[in-house]
Amino acid sequence: MRRTLVTVVAMAVITPAALAACGKDAKQDSAWVGTPAASGSASAPAKSEPVTESATVPVSLALTPATGKTGVPLSTEIGVKLAGGKITGVTLKDAKGAAVPGKLRDDGTSWIPGRTLSPNQKYSATVVATAGDGQTTTQTTSFTTMGKPGRKTGTGLYLFDDRTYGVAMPVVVEFSPGVKKADRAAVQRRLFVSTSPAQPGVWSWTSSGTQAYYRGPEFWKPGTTIAVRVAVGGLPTGGGRYGDRDRSATAKIGRSFEMKVDNASKKMTVVQDGKTVKTMPVSLGKKSTPSSSGVMVVMEKKEATVFDTTDTDGDEGYVTDIEFAQRLTWSGQYIHSAPWSVGSQGRRNVSHGCVNVSPANARWLFDKTLIGDPVTVKGTGDKLAYGNGWTPWDLSWAEYIKGSALPVPAALK
Fold this sequence. Notes:
The chain has 413 residues and is mainly beta. It folds into three domains: 60-145, Sandwich (Immunoglobulin-like), CATH 2.60.40.3780; 152-255 and 398-412, Immunoglobulin-like (Sandwich); 257-391, L,D-transpeptidase catalytic domain-like (Beta Barrel), CATH 2.40.440.10. It contains four helices and 28 strands. Residues 31-53 are annotated as: Disordered.
């Protein structure tokens, strides 16, 4: 009997197809995550060319889109080709003279509007460059955006504003339909993350292109603030489609809380801030429905739910009330209260793939955990499938960065 559950904690546009395992909720909920991008959230301040003391170096400045260009995507950036100085000002205004906020890219090659541009709108951009002797050069361009896109790529961000997450919480962006390999680099260039304190990371795509993850080489430091902007509103995503909207969120990382499950001992060890705080017996998936081994994270928490497998298992299916359920995979692997298996916990595996614990231990865990807390299961007869849940930590760093559509900085290789 293999179960599925389609609900998610911080659901984006779509839920990946359920695969199979322990449970499926009787009801299904979903919610958009993130808010329209805040101005200026695109990137850090630009790095410009060194300014020399010589006043003889001429400034060369050229802009894109070209003046008079029409049908420009709503995601367009003001491209800057500069030599002999540094950019000291960029202004973008709509037809009514209202300014659009934005920031330069880190490399200074373009200026990114802080929000999606309006369709069928004329915009004018003014860019000022300053030479080493203080002389300024100004260039302008004007263009008209395309109409409202007819075909869109649905997007979602699994992150809520002002929430606190576990140290393994990846940034997860979802796309429907998935983005093909040829189009991923352009999309990835519009995915921005900043952390405080700074902890560099890399984006990596699942093979289907339906999800892109962001993580660093190690779990986030407790207390970290993560700010995300998915600036894909109006962005060409391939196949004549355009991103549906910009999304953003700012969240925090809480204390370190790790759950380590060992099939050999049939025990879970709980480590908080580097210290073991509790151990408890568990019962994992039986031979016919083994639990997956791998590094997972808590994706969803439900104090009470219903596992219903009748739609997938037919006459062999069942409907069971479940308490203190914490989702680990899309296919339905959970940590949950299992009073019926207390006698087997610590001794033998009897579940349908879930991590069974006693009611008291299930409540204790439920009260302690955060979405994004890491859960490592080892020693079972099944390996976690990449993409079956928020799985970027299940790959080594060397394997993980292979999924980036852009070159990885040398310092992070």
